[in-house]
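Sample 1 of the test manifest.
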Amino acid sequence: MFHNNRLCNLLGIQQPVIQGGMVWCSGWRLASAVSEHGGLGILGAGSMTPDFLREQIGKVRTATRSPFGVNVPLLFSKAEECMQVCIEEHVPVLITSAGSPAKWTAKAHEHGMKVGHVVANVKFAEKAEAAGVDFLICEGVEAGGHNGLEELSTLVLTQLVRKATPLPLVSAGGYADGKGLAAALALGADGIQVGSRFACSIESSASDIYKNHLLKVGTLGTVLTSRGWGPTRVVPNTFVNELQGLERKGASPEEQREFIGTGRSRRGMLEGDLEHGELEIGQIAGLFTGVASVAEIMEQFRTDFLETVQRLTQEL
Amino acid sequence: MFHNNRLCNLLGIQQPVIQGGMVWCSGWRLASAVSEHGGLGILGAGSMTPDFLREQIGKVRTATRSPFGVNVPLLFSKAEECMQVCIEEHVPVLITSAGSPAKWTAKAHEHGMKVGHVVANVKFAEKAEAAGVDFLICEGVEAGGHNGLEELSTLVLTQLVRKATPLPLVSAGGYADGKGLAAALALGADGIQVGSRFACSIESSASDIYKNHLLKVGTLGTVLTSRGWGPTRVVPNTFVNELQGLERKGASPEEQREFIGTGRSRRGMLEGDLEHGELEIGQIAGLFTGVASVAEIMEQFRTDFLETVQRLTQEL
């Protein structure tokens, strides 16, 4: 399968599945397991110091010889230093998000890296294409964590971006198995990025308390906080109720930021504080019935995809 | 194509495409054209008097011998009378929305009608199944007009509802061509409901001013107004700015309802008042480059679907 898939050929992977570079979840264990099973594992630099990132890159290399990548949110305070680490360590794939790709793409290319950029609307997709990125990741409003202001759904965003640019395209937000992979490829994407399903995997570096709590998302749902200035999809809890209370009272973004403070996602996702921490996750977690291993998840992508395409051919 | 599709077999149609029953758009011209081209045309009773609905049913029957349906929003003030008209006129398919399907499903079945119900979350899907409906339509947050409170995307909602119930399932919100149809079937749906693309068709009974304005949605985007009490997806304009100003000031739902008043969607969609009317439409309108005929739209579903499935088989 996927021998003619241009995302697989571009990145040197066996399945067109990129693991999301999520804060607190995407350490070396998760990244190396995904890469070892044929996808593209990603270290999430957004919750790492530059030294820790360098150490994690070393551990990925010890665990697998397959390609992997690093996600650097460009608005992250340590973005510049993390980027320097990626260059020095000859990381095969760089994924940039939350900022302009113009600054780093050429430099990353000089050092032989492939560059992908995450976008949430057509305008940024066109800008990223102009900046020379190798592929695009378009992420819809159902995705976990930080989101675009436009709140375009993955289904619609993928079709809009596919029409706007010929670049290899990765669809993100709402995918957890091979049926979703087939749907994304039907829409014209070349692959998918999967976050929540891997956040809730055995190899995820997040707290087991957080991972087990995600199995209740089918009942609890998710909410998008900080609409209009920094939309973030999370599991509702006391922290979210308090934040939404401030929003309803008309608190300014500055006042809301002050209430959120620093370390909220660490508190929720790494330390397992289910009430006062920030529990980032996508809507698709409502589908999860267990914490799965990367091997199981990757196998399901393959078998579900095969079954799905065979099922679709029966409609012809 | 679609010979083994259970939605097609249930409804007696050739393509698993149901036209949305939209206010001001879905009169006899649109409904009969969709049915005549192999989909299921739907009259939208939500903007009709019972007498007008009866007349429209007669006109559909004159224009086509193919099956068609009527959508009745159950919270609509004339729902009961419209339902009576559907029964007396032996309408083949009834689609209920915005209310409980428990009241009407058995009665509609007694009169030989097939019944579908529109849901926006898993709980209502299970309730509709318990009420005995023949099929479900699950509609995501990217859809135009009235939306569920949970704001689940079509991609996620379809997977959740598919897992929760074995009923024939129609996915709605974000679809406009055969690539989308293939994506929906990949996710396990049996067909799609298409609103916006048909709202922006030659046969749509909406104002040409409204239809031509929809071609700017790629730039203007859409917004979801009345979040939390009656989410409605529309094109932004003066009316929406004023409504959102009230929301920001903390106006109660009652105060917002009073500002909206009656006849807003008529003013926007039928009378073409682009500034002070309500212009309901889905996010997918961002893809439209022209007002198309139903024949073109239906042909694109067929050819795109075929091409898409053939393209997917090349990934195996």
